[in-house]
Amino acid sequence: MKKNKRIVGKILMALVVIFFYLPILFMIVFSFNSGKSLTSFSGFSTIWYQKMFASRDMMQSLYTTISVAVIATIVSTIVGTITAIGLSKSKKIIQKVVSQLNDFPIMNPEIVTAIGLMLLFITFHIEKGYMTMLLAHIAFCIPYVILSVMPKIRSLDPNLADAAMDLGATPWQALTKVLVPQIMPGIISGALIAFTMSFDDFIISYFVTGGGVKNLSIMVYTMSKRVNPSINAISTLVVVLITIVLIVINVLPMIKQKRVETNKAPLSKKWIAVLVSITVAVAGLGVGLSKGGFNSKKYAGQTLHVYNWGEYTGENLISNFEEKTGAKVVMDIFDSNEQMYIKIANGESYDVIVPSDYMIERLINEKLIQKLDRSKLDCLDLLAKGVKGLPYDPHNEYSVPYFWGTVGITYDKTKVSQEDLDKEGYNIFLDQKYKGNIYLYDSERDSFMMALKALGYSMNTTNQNELNEAYQWLINCVNTMQPEIVTDEIIDNMAQGRKALGLMYSGDAAYVMSENKNMGFYMPKEGTNLWSDAMVIPKNAKNVPLAHEFINYVTSYEGAYDNSSYVGYTSSNKEVLKELASTDYKGINAYKPRSGYKKDEVFAYDENTRKVISSLFSKVKIAASNASK
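RESULT FIELD:
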């Protein structure tokens, strides 16, 4: 009986190990995949490692992650250890109060800490960047060090330091030669926890950084919209580095003990020298990566701050622009127009931002962006006719289109018939034939657009009864169809054919079709959202001439082709649009907006309607959550 229990225990342990390490092994294997798929290994290749090392952003983010983690660990370990020792000599009331204060940030949700630190930096007008990220990491690491060191201190004889000083030791010697060696296991544990917490942090880093400074977590997050195997490559690199560190940490004490036993000199000084050399090399790499500029160019030494969507720039767009101008481009990423608006409304300075149509209208009304200087622009004649003069900026006084497209239905041709699509349009999302096999996009605007169009209404309606009908349509959908409400993960999921139907942007559909030949894209006859994202210059931009130069380059043939062919969205450059549409480039630009099609609309901004839709869509998501239980 006992033998059987041992066998079962070993099997369970093996399963736990497999559960933890199989995904890591899977990631390592597919980092050497010659294709982009995460499920089909098409051949061995190091192409994604080459792309990783060639990417300045990825290397810079890795350096930022390591340097912040190392510095935060060293500082927090020293401060936390000294604090813990000091508390052990303090009155009980002080110990109790400080311990409660120390526990609070550990138990506090990270999002609360992140917002608090962000508001602190904003209140004191501290420019967000590397230093604010470092200070934030030190702040949240210190409590973990104190928590690790305190139990070791409590286990010591409280008279140990006094005894050492009675025997002739100075206070410093009593601290460093008596107390610290006794509590070293707690210090090392605290340091390892601090390093892990800093290296892995995303939420706090995301809220306190700025100026284009990104750690690895933020970089991976911004790259996750589409399948990018370079993420596997850099993650594998991190696993290798951590494995090496763990081996060194475990092997060094064994070597040291062996040398002591054989009366040989310890290796500590040599290893310290090696570690210092490695640190200097890493620091040098980071400095080298952070330096740029082409001093002979017109804009040498200048910096352009861009605020754009994640995974929304061509592979070589930024590097080519920097090479042509000599300027450095710092790009921050946002996930929604509302997130971008908060920063702009609060006065954060960017030179170029890329909002959507309805948000541009709002920014114009609130005078948060400035008119473009036509004398500095040579790109307006390059624009496609259909993308100029849109309702939110009829004379293109404030904006130059970046990408445009539509919203439609991405479907699996092996599961969904063209006949059903033609007959039902958006109402196919209510067809019981596809129950449990559909995605809804987690966007209040696009979801209500679909519902309103299915009911025959304008997506810009302000009629409360029509909005309520659309709400009931969506409630009916989530209650009867068991949809999965997703955001950008819909792209990879549809590329892998995991559902039959999904509401999707045309550019994302182009990517899905390029990855899976069984996928198609359909725009219902009821009409769709004719959207446009455009480049504008905020009112408080610091480098307006360089901003105009960037707009010119992005709209040029070279910049627009790089953008559209890599990202997949429809180009605003008429020559690039025509060229890509006339080739067999995996469906890029195959869904260009239906010019003159009256049921296709551009979103108009209305604050009251936005609030109503936002409130109603929250109820839809709650209903979807309840229906899935």
